[in-house]
Amino acid sequence: MSVEISWLPLLPVLGPALAAVLVLVVDLVLPGRRGPLGAVAGLGLLVGVAGAVVGRLADDARSLCPPPGASAAGSTCLVDVSPAGSTLQAVTLLAAGAALALLLAARGAGDSLSDDASDDASDDVAVVAGVLAGAAGAAVTLGARDLGSWLVGLELATLPFVAVLALRSVRARGSAALDLLVTAVLSFALAALGAGLWVMSTGTLLLDGTTSDGTALGALAEPERAALTAASVLLVLAAGFKLALVPVHLWAPLSYERGGPAVATALTGVSVTGGLGAILVVVEAVGRAGLPGPRLALGVLAAVSLVLGAVMAWRQDDLLRLVAWSGVTQGGWVAAAASVGGSAPAAGYLAVYVVAVVAVLAAVAATGTRLVDHTGLLRRDPLVGLSLAAGLLALAGLPPALVGLLAKVVVLDAVVTAGSWWLAGAAVVGAVVALAVYLRWLAVALRPVPTSLVRPDGAGSDLADDLGDDAVEVVTGRRGAAPVVALVAAALVVVTSLAPGLLL
To answer: What is the pLDDT of residue 167?
Structure first.
């Protein structure tokens, strides 16, 4: 049977995927040249962003569809991206570009905050190709409507970052990559088992809410409904690994801390987004069957993540671990919206979170990974300090970063409308604790720093060592891509606060 192909909805996948292949070709022709690699990667990501934006404006991003007149059982398009999904595709590809800028800049500068890995230039090729492949995988999950594409996209959004983490970790490289690899393999095992149960109960690989003969999933007999419920729970749990939901969250603090700010940006902006896309596809499909089990399970994971992530973030002085635990809480917000069928609020919230956390992590890359490193940042480096403040305020949901506040209101509205008051209560508790976490960080950035401890980049000083472990030794003059990335992300926070409809 012939298939109708519309190329525009495929650009968010084809752009980074083809760029990943071209990066390998360019390295064969021009070995050891970082400039051409960045140019090819940037062009591929921009093509993908353009396709996602046009798809969002056109409000029709379907491809690989059966021809007109096909039977009802075979009328599902294999690619069907919602408007919210198109927005999230664009944000994901931009986040991948920010991660590549941080990774390559840290590699070129030899920045100990982000990279002490191999000096072999071939590492750059693997890192660039890995991030591009991961971005393509995340874009796949946001539009997949069959289990084959769903499984490939979900794993492609994670496995390349095992190599990136191994090549770009600050410390304990092998251990960090192994942790993420074990997590990815376990996630795939759950997903494969869930996919088998799905096919057994529905007779089809399609995720369109119908069986192989076109019957609605709600009309299944009780044994098939039980198998479908188990399949859905396993698929949601497998995707929950990517969102770092409790109890499948332990990879995040270790990977963020050991990988550095650049790797953390890649994991947050790409892999987490792929997990959400996978969850939304499954939740939408089983929602048509009226099965309460998968949504209830997702709601419980969300409630625990909302509270535990915020409490654990409060205990952290290492900023990368703080961002990781904060991400557990933010993932809880996303899962809360998805559990009540709020696909658009979930995607919108994650888009806001990705933009804000990129600003925060870029500021960390420019300044330091310890909380004490940020003492007086707003006074001694106003541009990076203001970028950090914009990201933290958006994550906390405080004015003037109104887009963060509106994202939380939209999610709470969906949860309350669905009558899940217990979940709304968990969200409020998590928001209050997280507010203290972000304000504590912001207070440190506002604190004055003794000028006697400020030294220019590269200058030696023994003063901080003489004053003990609590002394603040501030390095000024560190330049590179990190401040630029932080400013651009902060500018997006400002623009979307004025026009929140761009993300929400």
So the answer is: 79
